[in-house]
Amino acid sequence: MATSMAAALAASIPAPQAAPTPTAPTYEAIPASMSKVIDIEAEIPITSIQLDGMVVSKIIKHSSEAQSSIVHGLLLGLDLDGILEVSNSFPLPHHTNDDDEKLAKNTGRYQASMLRSLKEVRADDSVVGFYQSTTMGAFFRQTMLDTQVIHQERLRHGGVIIVHDVSQTARGNASFRAFRLSKEFIDAYKKRDFSSQSLIIHKLTFSSILEEIPLTVRTNPLLSAFINTISQPHSSPVPDAPLGEPLSALPPTYSSLDLGNGSVTKNLEHVIEALDNYKTEEGNLAYLSRQIAREKARADAFMSKRKEENAARVAQGLAPLPEEDMNRLFKIPPEPSRLESMLLLGQIDAYAKTLEGTASTSLVKMFTFVHVKCSHAGGLRTAKVGVGNWLAAGNSRMRTEEADQALSRRLLRAEAGFNMRSFISLFVALSYAISAMALAHPSVSHRLHARRQCSPRPASSAVAASSVASSSVKVVPSSSIAAAAAVAASPSSSVAAAPSSSVVAAPSSSVAPHSSSSAPTTTQAPSSTKTSTQSSAVPATAVLVGGAATTGSSSGLSFLTGTQTGQGTFYGTGLGACGITNTDTDYIAAVSKLLFDQYPGYSGANPNSNPVCGKQIKANYQGKSVTITVTDRCEACQLTDLDFSPSAFSQLADQSIGRISGMTWDWI
């Protein structure tokens, strides 16, 4: 029987097969040991947040790359047994006014792409909140609240906000705080009612908008071991350092004692700006309140008049007029929202607290710095308040761990002693003064002013011994004193020899130069006990030492003739004891107190008329030399030490050394 072509083709097609039934998904049971930890239904409330060290680094890096703007990002992690563990994060694109619409459309697509990529590499892809950077603690903004309300409805446990203060990080304090919206604020936000009555009902203030959650930072053992390794002193074969001297991998620094006047000035500017904004907002609210009161008064007057008319019509037997819709006749505006003014109050409070902390820390730093400067003005700074020793050993320095711990304890005790809330007006005035000083003298460091506050200390035993005449002090004729004065004017002249006479033990201050004649003479002050005379057969060379004539033996120290050897330091210049105002770029120096006060020809009345002022000295150190002019007086310097200006010191050695030993100098 013949078959058609269509039938043959139909017979050749395989019969359709039934679609395979999909296999039912299998669910793995949660182990019994984890059933109480894993919260599937989000019933366990979040009590604390654990921030991973990698997340901290990412947030700080993202904030530092965009210092002039506020940055945002998403937080990823998982909540276990009431602890929200934030293990990862990624930044969100920054929006500007120009491309706000374009970037806003792509933000959702970017987030979905990032989460999909994280899921492919088996990383945490559960969004638990977002982070935001801020400056000086002021993070109360409408956009932040709107974003958190959206997260509150979509994320588990409502999500959290982590606020990072960039200004605190710049001062060495990494500031991270975690918040979530309070139930009262969410209720008022859903009703879109922030009137005065609503704020009273919900008991809302700027401090009750957010609830702070305890936050801890977790670092892995490898990072902790690395930080401990670089912070511990260790022995290192440095060529310029003595063998066996412990050196730290972290270089010593005193930058933490910097007052940071710029941040105080900026903080004050923010406070003033926030106060102006709050005043403007309060003015707008007062205007709207008057408008509302005016419209309500008109409506009440209309209603009273209508009631009187209806009463009169009823008395006349007429039908009363129908009541009209008051909302149609009078457009009474709704009561304005108090949310913006409440947020501005939060910003003012944040700025004030930041200013309080900055002022208290600055006072402690000023106390520490002045104490250190008064203890040792320049060079070797051995801190009595616990600042680490700055030891000059060639080009290397060391800061001991015990000194760091003592400094921390002292700073904590001093900072705890200030009641800043009781003296906030004092600190604001102090901040204004520091800011004005920095603006008036931008080139002068605050170390100059701290140095001028140092009170003279009692002379050390070595200085006292040299300044008090011993049994070798002679009373020489006036001609010998004149010869010594001539030696001071011309160091190349020979030293006059005078025979020894009766010995007088008297303080050097009791012998004062007196210029009553053309030749300088010496008047002996009363007091002093005569001792036994020495042999006059052997002549002695009279050399003027601090205004007193001493024998030129090896025991006496001559610093007016020949080449002298001493130590060199540097300081912040300014108005010196000679009445000359200098800058750090001038080649000037301060001589020791003993040399300045008892220089020949100086009466002690007016330091500006001291003959040593304007004298030139040539200093040499390791093949380098510099010529400087004497313009100041050093309180803590020894007999032959010189305290240079920073530029003059740089001609001899690097300023990081702090003090040079073995320096030589000569009068010019």
TrEMBL record:
Gene Ontology cellular component annotations, sorted alphabetically: eukaryotic 43S preinitiation complex; eukaryotic 48S preinitiation complex; eukaryotic translation initiation factor 3 complex
Classification via CDD domains: DPBB_RlpA_EXP_N-like, MPN_eIF3h
Recorded GO MF terms: metallopeptidase activity; translation initiation factor activity
Record's subcellular location: Cytoplasm
Main location: cytoplasm
Residue ranges of the region described as Disordered: 509-536
InterPro entries to which the protein is assigned, alphabetical: eIF3h (IPR027524), eIF3h_C (IPR045810), Expansin_CellWall (IPR051477), JAMM/MPN+_dom (IPR000555), MPN (IPR037518), RlpA-like_DPBB (IPR009009), RlpA-like_sf (IPR036908)
Task of the protein: Component of the eukaryotic translation initiation factor 3 (eIF-3) complex, which is involved in protein synthesis of a specialized repertoire of mRNAs and, together with other initiation factors, stimulates binding of mRNA and methionyl-tRNAi to the 40S ribosome. The eIF-3 complex specifically targets and initiates translation of a subset of mRNAs involved in cell proliferation.
Quaternary assembly: Component of the eukaryotic translation initiation factor 3 (eIF-3) complex.
Occurrences of domain MPN (ranges): 49-185
The keyword DNA-binding belongs to this UniProt entry's keyword annotation: no
Keywords: Cytoplasm, Initiation factor, Protein biosynthesis, Signal
Database matches in PROSITE patterns: MPN
SUPFAM superfamilies in alphabetical order: Barwin-like endoglucanases (SSF50685)
Family classification: Belongs to the eIF-3 subunit H family.
Pfam families: DPBB_1 (PF03330), eIF3h_C (PF19445), JAB (PF01398)
Domain of life: Eukaryota
Keyword Signal attached: yes
Any one biological process term the GO annotation gives: formation of cytoplasmic translation initiation complex
Protein name: Eukaryotic translation initiation factor 3 subunit H
